[in-house]
Design a protein that fits this description.
single chain, 283 residues, alpha/beta, seven-stranded mixed β-sheet, two-stranded antiparallel ribbon, 12 helices, 19% strand, AbpA_HamA_C, Anti-bacteriophage protein A/HamA C-terminal domain-containing protein
């Protein structure tokens, strides 16, 4: 049985999930508790995904009651150990990891963090490399994240990266790096290696590739409410549709794109809670 067979129980309130439009759209909310947005609950949920986000497949295979604490600490240290965390992007990548796993039942192909040469190194390339298994084979999901406060800045920043990261020559170089990091013990190792091989036409690869894009932002709607009600949902959907229109109106790559939108009450507060939890696991 795959180490990815078991997952944490779903957490997000899925406000919108539409695969029929292009790009696709999934909008997820954390909701409220006691009149406050659930910073703590979201942070706790994300850390349930930490081991498979940060560790190699072989590490996950070896996880049991005797090794769990050591491996969780290893995963936490792998994220980073610097106090200059406010501009780091790893928590956004962890959020995207959780969303693809929860919503699309994906499997991570590699953990880019595992291959750092130092704990505070910033790793280039895609922010997630997952696969989704369908009846006709694997889809490759190559993620981009902008863990921002301002949605307009997030859209502005992600568009040029989508263009450059879907250039054929850039992708070929990235596939070489991905191929070298795939654990041969993973059940989909051979199929993914075949898909991204230089023997496979990019035309074939592109038909089996999706680019999940995660954008976060401090939401005016979230901050104007204190519980999930029909008026809140209606207002949030209106806000999300406006953002979606702004994103979809940009020049997007020819590959399939799926947009994840996660409205936040305060990104800074969430980041502080996540940092506290990370430091606790590193001790």
């Amino acid at each position: 049985m795959s180490v990815f067979a078991d997952k944490p129980a779903p957490f997000f309130n899925i406000v919108t999930h539409d695969l029929g439009r292009s790009p696709g759209l999934t909008a997820a909310s954390s909701g409220y508790e006691g009149g406050k947005w659930r910073h703590e609950a979201l942070a706790s949920y994300l850390f349930e995904w930490l081991p498979e986000f940060a560790l190699h497949y072989s590490d996950l295979e070896s996880m049991n009651s005797a090794t769990a604490m050591r491996l969780i600490k290893k995963a936490a240290v792998t994220v980073y150990t610097t106090e200059k965390y406010k501009k780091r992007g790893e928590f956004g990548e962890l959020l995207l990891h959780a969303l693809i796993r929860e919503v699309f039942n994906s499997q991570p192909a590699i953990s880019k963090l595992y291959f750092k040469t130092s704990t505070n190194e910033t790793v280039k390339g895609f922010d997630a490399v997952h696969v989704v298994e369908n009846d006709d084979g694997l889809e490759l999901w190559l993620g981009e994240v902008k863990f921002y406060e301002d949605i307009h800045q997030a859209i502005y920043a992600v568009i040029p990266e989508l263009q450059s990261h879907t250039d054929g020559d850039w992708l070929r170089r990235e596939f070489i790096l991905i191929d070298s990091k795939i654990d041969p013990k993973w059940q989909h190792a051979d199929a993914l290696k075949k898909l991204i091989s230089d023997r496979t036409s990019l035309d074939v690869i592109f038909k089996r590739t999706c680019i999940p894009v995660l954008l976060t932002y401090d939401s005016e709607c979230v901050n104007q409410h204190s519980e999930v009600t029909a008026p809140f949902v209606a207002a949030l959907q209106s806000e999300l549709e406006s953002i979606y229109a702004s994103f979809a109106d940009r020049k997007l790559p020819a590959l399939r794109v799926h947009l994840f939108l996660v409205p936040l009450a305060c990104k800074k507060t969430l980041l502080e809670v996540l940092q506290q939890k990370l430091e606790g696991l590193q001790r």
